[in-house]
Amino acid sequence: MLIRTDETADIDTPTGTMRVHIARPAREGRFPAVILYSEIYQVTAPIERLAAMIAGQGYLVAIPEVYHEYEPAGRVLAYDKPGTDRGNELKYTKPVAAFDSDTAALYDWLLKHNACNGQVGAFGVCLGGHLAYRAALHSGIKAAACFYATDIHSASLGAGKSDDSLARAADIRGEIMMVWGRSDPHVPYEGRRRIRDALEQAGTALEWHEVDGQHAFLRDGAPRFDAALFLQAMNWTNALFQRALR
To answer: pTM for the whole thing?
Structure first.
């Protein structure tokens, strides 16, 4: 399916204007929407290519700039130590409530988009995996695909490093898919078990995968990129969204 990736929108949120990058089918029509939450580096080239992959399956993909309160519109943090340090600083500066209000504002905006059919899911990697999980706490999100989500097991996202993500597992009403690399130092075995136990106890509609991969194995062009796992992950994702959003 041919797509277009040349659109952005600046939308209002309770904490200021947030730029959103759009990838969607080029043909006319209304499609399910997927909010794609990035890593700590915001909308990098690998994130744009990931969005294109999802959009090409027939989805309207919206990528918010998650640090819009602290960085100018369009700012991309580099995959280097200064960029990593800044991204990590901001994920512990921004209040969790502001991440959530961004999701609510973007959800409402998508429902009014002329290419959206009213069904909305979420997808995220790293920090974005946690944000996709928190998006699933929103009653309108039908499915969330969360890849190597950081800080859930430690409840340490946001200002004060104290979030309620696991404590609110029972609030998830849609389907959720969690995917982990078994060699990921950011989410060790005990952390993964803590997350799964909470979701199982909450009775969540859960799909769970642990693969022989490292953190950020979806990021193409990086040493940890695993092309075979990438294709497998996209198959899982497409099956989830076909089932829940169509």
So the answer is: 0.98
